[in-house]
């Protein structure tokens, strides 16, 4: 029984280390609750670099950001 438990825990730890990870951030202006975009953070595994992609909307081209 202990061997099965140990093997199961080991499998879960190995599997978690090889899974891709994703996170999303919704961007809002400081003074409003209006969403102006989304950033997505992706990583293939714990040893891979993080890739950041996103979109921005409704920004005034002549304003400082």
From TrEMBL:
Keywords: Signal. The keyword Signal applies. The keyword Signal applies. Residues 1-19 form the signal peptide. This is Uncharacterized protein. It comes from Rotaria socialis.
């Amino acid at each position: 029984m202990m061997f099965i438990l140990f093997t199961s825990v080991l499998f879960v730890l190995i599997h978690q280390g090889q899974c891709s990870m994703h996170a999303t951030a919704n961007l809002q202006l400081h003074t409003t609750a209006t969403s102006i975009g989304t950033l997505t953070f992706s990583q293939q595994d714990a040893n891979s670099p993080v890739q950041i992609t996103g979109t921005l909307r409704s920004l005034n081209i002549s304003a400082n950001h």
